[in-house]
Structures are given as C-alpha cells and as structure tokens.
Amino acid sequence: MKVTTSFLELREARESLKATVGLVPTMGFLHEGHLSLVRAARQECSSVVVTIFVNPAQFGPAEDLSRYPRDLERDLSLLKKENVDLVWAPPTETLYPADFQTWVDLEKVSKPLEGAMRPGHFKGVATIVAKLFNAIQPQKAFFGQKDAQQAAVIRQMVKDLNYPIEVIICPIAREGDGLAMSSRNVYLQPAERQAATVLSRALFAIRQAFEDGERDAGQLKQIMQTIFNQEPLARVQYISCADPVTLQELESIENQALFSVAVFIGNTRLIDNMLVP
Ligand code: PAF
Predict the structure, then answer these.
(1) Ligand 1 in reach of 182 Cβ (< 6 A)
(2) Helix residue ranges, H only, 118-180
C-alpha cells in the first residue's frame, strides 16, 4: 500500500494503477462503515484508492472541525489489512491554498434537510468531491447511504458535470443494537450511547408501519415523533419523508420514499435514514 501526501506523488502513483480504479473518499477515523465501502471497492475494482482528508469547507463555524476525531496511524493499518493500493492524505493547504476561490454549489438538491440545517455544508462536500474526482480520476466511487442527501448531491453533480464515474452507494453499516456507524459516535457518553438507538428504532418502526399498509407521510412521521418523545435525551431537529432523488417532501408514498432524521442526543448531532420500501 502506497501512502502519499503531495499532488506530485499522487500523480505518479495514480499512473501505475490498473483500471478499474475505485475511489473511497473519507475524512478518516475509519470504522466498519468505511471498511465496508473499501471492501465493496476491492470486490468491484482492480485498484482501490482511499483518500483521508478532514475537509474544513464542509464544517460550519459552530461545528466540530477542531475536535473532529483523527488517527492517521490507525487508519493506515486498517487500510493495509484491506489490501488498499493507494492512500492519499494531503494537508489542507494542498487542496485549499490561500487564494482558493472556485466552488461547486448545487441549486436544488443541496438546499433542504442537512442543507437547511448546515448552510454551506454541501457546497463544501461537492467542491471537495469534485477536486478528489479530478485528482484521482476513478472509474467508480463509493459512498455510504448513511449520508443519503450527500449521495443524492454527488449523483446530481456527476450528472451535471459529466464525470465519467459510476457512483456506488453502499448500505448503512449498523452496530448490533441498530445505531448507524459514524465517526461522531465516539462523542456519546454511555447513557447517550444507549439513548442513540432511538434513531434506528424509530426508522425500523415506520418501515414496519409501511409494511402493514400505512402510506400517509404525516402519519408515518408521527409514529417516529412519538418514539422520539419517549426518549428524554433526544431532541429532534427534523423528521423528513422525501423523494430519494430530489429530496422534495412527500405527502404520501407512491413509489419509494427516503425517511431521514437529525436528532441531538445530548450535544451530539446524529443523522440516520431508511429507504421505504
Ligand atoms: O462522507 C464523508 O466522509 C465526506 O463528506 C466526504 C465524502 C469524504 C467529503 O469530505
């Protein structure tokens, strides 16, 4: 496994990779969710590239950039075990030099939900993913369904900017008790960690209600709200039932719906989602 930090080294290493090249972009502090993306890439591609870059542009001024968990040594040893070919972990100045001024901003799909709660977040995500696509030029790129709106934003960007890249969205990796894996789970105190299962419990409950025949989005969202009301440590930011491609809110489910939630458990903001059916 080759580990590079500069653009020059990356370009040299990229040239020797065999197609198909699969890219797994990450912000490091890897967990099983990231590793499931790496394994999917390993299975589908001849060469696997992983990037590790905590992207300052996708954090708001009041968000957790400085305390975002980092452990490069541990990440590298995990990636080595997964037989990754190339890791690129550039310093911030390489991707955002002092005079940086070009951004990728999507007009519609990035605006509701996470986009409304975290203004500028998807402008940061789309810009860095475009830069990583330009630098690595993969044929396939792997992202997690955990960040469902991010997945929709990236799919739209790939279409709009004509990237010859297949975007592959892998299922959410969950802990044994249902909690969606996230680097931010390390912030949870023991009682909060237990309370955090309320997100997946609420989502599994609406899937059951859907299977039992409920199609009204309002009714389904109310089922989730009732479950959140029973958890004193949970503070709901939004509950949404939206079209999975456009992210526009639905009133009833005709084809497929994306249920997504953002909930504070103590001071930690968690998101989770489920596609129904
Ligand atoms: O999902 C993430 O970890 C990040 O948003 C990504 C795609 C690596 C861009 O910084």
Answers:
(1) no
(2) 121-136, 148-160
Write down the pLDDT at residue 250.
98
Q: Residue 172: its pLDDT value, please?
A: 98
Residue of 34, 42, 123, 193 with catalytic role? 34
Give the pLDDT confidence of 187-210 residue by residue, as tens digits.
999 999 999 999 999 999 999 999
How many A from CA of 215 to the centre of ligand 1? 33
CATH 3.40.50.720 fits 183-276, yes or no: no
The three-state secondary structure class of 94 is helix
Q: What is the pLDDT of residues 61-83, one digit of tens each?
A: 999 899 999 999 999 999 999 99
Residue owning tokens 């739209």: 156
The verdict on the CB of residue 26 being under 6 Å from ligand 1 is yes
Instruction: Tell me, using a 6 A CB cutoff, whether residue 87 lines ligand 1.
Output: no
- Whether ligand 1 lies within 6 angstroms of the CB of 129 is answered as yes
pTM for this prediction: 0.97
- CATH class name, domain 2-170: alpha beta
Q: Where are the domains of the chain?
A: 2-170, 183-276
- Please state the atom number of ligand 1 nearest to the C-alpha of residue 34: 3
Name residues whose C-beta falls within 8 Å of residue 224's C-beta, 6 or more positions apart in sequence: 202, 203, 205, 206, 239, 259, 261
Calculate how far, in angstroms, residue 213's C-alpha sits from the geometric centre of ligand 1.
Answer: 36
**From edge to edge, which strands make up the β-sheet containing 21-26?**
2-4, 86-88, 47-52, 21-26, 140-144, 166-170
CB atoms within 10 A of CB 76: 19
Closest CA to 160 of 109, 234, 216: 109
